[in-house]
Amino acid sequence: MDAWAAALESTIPHLFARNAAEFAEHPALTDGPRHWTWRQAREDALVLAAGLAALGLQRGQTMLIAMSDRAEHWLADTAAAHLGAVSSTVHPALGPEQVRQFAQHCRARVVVLEGTAEVHRWYAALRAVTSIDHVVVLDELAVPSGDRRFRSWKALRHNGARLLREDSDVVERHWRAVRPEHPAAIVHTHRDGGEPRGVVLTHRNVCSAAAAVHHIARAEPGSARLCYLPLAHIAERMSTLYSALHDVAHVHFCGERRQLAEALVRCRPAVFFGDSQVWEELASGIRCSRRPTARTRERLRARVGLDRTTWSACGAPPVKPRVRELFASLGVEIAELWGMPETTGCVTAHRAGRPGGEPLPGAEVRIAADGEVLVRGPLVCAGYLQPDGVVRSAADADGWLPTGDLGSVDAEGRLTVTGRKPA
């Protein structure tokens, strides 16, 4: 079976098991002074999965996570996938009422919170959303008394370890029953200022998207990634969760966005994604002549932590030409990606000097009669989660997803997006 066919039939726990078997002692996660090999990361994920199973979390049920970018967030997310449960990260910018709506819409069964701030933010949701059976809090001191739904992260791990001692194969039986077409995650999105919609992504969606990104990024096993954007964003989930699993990457965590510059220098990622604002910020710290020497280019790339970067990208809006030209002069080519949560992130990649964006492997792009860009392929999501729990397809009967963007496709199949379709 070739790599692409394998990705179409893979799942998150299958990738994790492969990594732990074939790259057991390779670095997997680094969070400050704490480090995990792939063997250790999978051991932790299995303990957490067993703990969640002991709480009654089952295949198809939703688990919400409200944590910063840290190893526990990543491990909890992958642990839920081992049970066939559907994880979703709550954006840190959401207020209490938005959190309540989010939890109610997802029919969340389990919620994982980081500390006191998250417990307070979730107070209204925990009172109003009757589907929430259990709340796990990482900070033991933030666990409120008098509510039997709450338990600490330590207790979750303790119960998981005990269940594994009693039944060592309990998690394996769950994850081997997970199929590529089963839901893996829900990403919430607001399109054109409308109501938030829950985009349901399957294991096939995320594994095939990871394989497609690997085709253009060509990351080597063990190469570094930096997790710094909220994992509520599809770009971050793809880069440092799903693609990291596929590529056997070494994920570093930056829990505070304001610490990005320092984290980049420590991590020196091989693959780096940033929005236009991030690239502007990085450019503001660079001063160079018009024709920097090779030694100067290397020194300036090292100053911002991009000296080991072999593939870099941005999403919409694109970086300004002067910023692109600055980084190009240093040997850093920024690819412009186009996509959305409904397409599991990236559909096309536009490189400097080429007209339009080239579709990723497995992605088909065409233009409707009214100029709307349509997408088809394994990257297209399962659909939108409805209040009654039904997943309504986002594509038409032939599998084409209307994106809401207008554009054109040239004779070579390259896409140029020209605007948004009128509402």
Q: Biggest β-sheet: count, sense, barrel?
A: 5 strands, parallel
Cα(first) to Cα(last) distance is 44 Å
Q: CATH superfamily of the largest domain, please?
A: ANL, N-terminal domain
What form results from the Cα inertia axes? globular
The percentage helix is 25-40%
The low-confidence runs, each spanning 5 or more residues with pLDDT under 50, are none
Which class do the helix and strand fractions yield? Answer: alpha/beta
Report the mean per-residue pLDDT as an integer.
94
Number of alpha- plus pi-helical segments: 15
Question: How would you write the strand order of the largest sheet?
Answer: 4-3-5-6-7
Structure at a glance:
The protein is α/β, with parallel strands linked by helices and 423 residues long. The protein contains 15 helices and 22 strands.
Name the features.
single chain, 423 residues, alpha/beta, Rossmann fold, 2 domains, 5-stranded parallel sheet, 15 helices, 22 strands, globular, ANL_N_sf
Please describe what this structure looks like.
This protein has 423 residues and is α/β, with parallel strands linked by helices. The chain folds into 2 domains: 200 residues, ANL, N-terminal domain (Rossmann fold, 3-Layer(aba) Sandwich); 216 residues, ANL, N-terminal domain (Rossmann fold, 3-Layer(aba) Sandwich), CATH 3.40.50. It has 15 helices and 22 strands. The strands form 5 sheets. The chain has a 5-stranded parallel β-sheet with strand order 4-3-5-6-7. It is globular. The protein starts with a helix and ends with a strand. This is AMP-binding protein. It holds the Pfam family AMP-binding. Keywords: ATP-binding, Nucleotide-binding.
